[in-house]
Amino acid sequence: MKALAEVLGKWEAVIGLEIHTELTTLETKMFCGCRISRDDPPNTNVCPVCLGMPGALPVPNRKAIESIVMAGIATNCEIMRRSMFYRKHYFYPDMAKNFQTTQGPVAFAMHGHLDLEVDGQGAGERPVWEDVAGDGQKPIVRADDGSYVVPIRIQRIHMEEDAAKMVHVGGSEGRIGGARESLLDYNRCGAPLIELVTEPDLRTPEEARLFMEQLRKVFCTLGISDCSLERGSMRCDGNVSLRRRGAAGLGTKTELKNLNSLRSLHDALAYEICRQAEVLEAGDSVRQETRHWEPSRRRTVVMRVKEVSDDYRFFPDPDLAPFDLSDEFVERCRARVPELPDAKRDRYMAVWGLRRREAVRLAADPDIASFFEGTAKLVEAAVVPTLANVMVNLVAGCKDLTRPQVAAVARLLADDAITFAQAREVLEMVDGTDADPEAIVDERGLRQATDVRALGAIVDEVLARCEDQVRQYHGGNRKVVGFLVGQCMRASGGSGNPKLFNQLLVQRLEE
Ligand code: ADP
Ligand code: ZN
Ligand code: MG
Predict the structure, then answer these.
(1) Is 241 in the pocket of ligand 1 (CB under 6 A)?
(2) Whether 277 and 306 share a structural domain
(3) Does any ligand 1 atom lie closer than 6 A to the CB of residue 134?
(4) 152 and 214 both lie in a single domain
(5) Are residues 296 and 406 located together in one domain of the fold?
(6) Which of 10, 383, 401, 469 could form a disulfide with 480 if both were Cys (CB 3.0 to 4.6 A apart)?
């Protein structure tokens, strides 16, 4: 098969995502009072409603509706004041009622968008000739480094309920084919799910990956789910088709399943784009089908072919009255939407002058952001960029640091009292203890490095005149560092610390 870059030079990939999110932070199910829990023994959180007993009546979960309205507000959707629950019928034991309660043509949230920022190498996946946004109207503006921002339209976010978990025993890889028996756990049945559907505005696997990542950050910040792709509390299906460069209209799509990591999402789409190109270039046509991503074999295989559209006998659920949202309800939800990652990132850059990359990382996760902001209060404003650097590059690997400990290390580093490598050591030493980094630095005599600036000047001078060795280093010969340390020692009249020279040299050489 051809490489993605070559295929995308000729074909336009059109991608739309359908993303299911379990509202894991709620206590009870969508239409009954059963507890939501991953850990309880099978079939212990069930009742006549979620087991579909005749005559049992559903009652919508107000908190679940608050969550979906918050999700809609955070993704720039219009909140629909009146919508209805529908029944989507199918026969399969994972839904005891024989229908799933979902929403009809009008969902709680519709017509939104997220501004997707694409930078780094991934920006190169989108060929320059495709520089228009999804609706074909607005041009995309690229920065000098090729990065761009593209609005991705969101069709809708609707509310639905989860199905029971099925475990197939005796077959291979837990699949139903060849299985001896199938076990059912109804604990998950009826748990609230929200499904977000994008317009087919994404054009590269990288954009799809970033969209998922960005949505995950937003939902995490809202606190409506634990947003785990690995555990499946956020699940994504990828729809993809190709069309000739410049062509209007949409090609036949395939739908990809089992994309349970950001990596799988990217790689499965990349594979599928190349596969479809091969089919089309051989003069065949793409079949509309659902395909399963096999991460170990890095390919997609057919799951089922869609020849006719399924007839779900879709109709408004007579047990659930049309749902009216009041202005007060919507405004209360709006007030509960916290500062979102993009706004947070911009604030960090404006208030503390953080670099964009670090601001993005810190703003992405609400726990990290709140740790960072709490620690920033403990240091002077001028130290905050160093603190950000410490948080992004050093703290990540630590388990249990306190804010004062991290603040102290940032201060020491900002004062050049220790080197970056020593900051790492100190953090590792105090991790999980209540030790004071200042005291450790003094005890171990690490402060000898107060001279980092003076030593740094020597290092710069040595590197400037040893061009040969620098070239050798970059050519892969790491041993030349020993020679360079010797040069530094000589230049300092023997007074410098060789270990420190070594660290500074490597740091400069790797910059
Ligand atoms: P289906 O009826 O198969 O469920 P929908 O029209 O509901 O398809 O769309 C499902 C998802 O697929 C949406 O995210 C949409 O943007 C995307 N999509 C629809 N048509 C195409 C296409 N031809 N190519 C790529 N994506 C598409
Ligand atoms: Zn129940
Ligand atoms: Mg659909």
Answers:
(1) yes
(2) yes
(3) no
(4) yes
(5) no
(6) 469
How many A from CA of 96 to the centre of ligand 3? 22
Same domain, 235 and 268: yes
Query: Could you tell me the distance, in angstroms and rounded to a whole number, from the CA of residue 501 to the centre of ligand 3?
Result: 61
Contacts of residue 312, Cβ cutoff 8 Å, sequence gap at least 6: 88, 89, 90
- Count of the separate structural domains present in the chain: 3
Q: Has this prediction a pTM greater than 0.85?
A: no
CA of 52 to the centre of ligand 3 (A): 25
**Structural domain boundaries enclosing 391:** 341-443
Within this chain, do residues 406 and 320 fall inside the same structural domain, yes or no?
A: no
295's CB contacts (< 8 A; 6+ apart) are: 258, 261, 264, 267
Strands 109-118 and 148-161: antiparallel
- Which of 267, 300, 334 is the endpoint of a domain? 334
Q: Whose CA is closest to atom 8 on ligand 1? A: 239
| Residue 35 in tokens | 């507890």
Tokens of 331: 């405004």
Kindly state if the Cβ of 14 falls inside 6 Å of ligand 1.
yes
Q: What ligand has the least distance to the C-alpha of 203?
A: 1
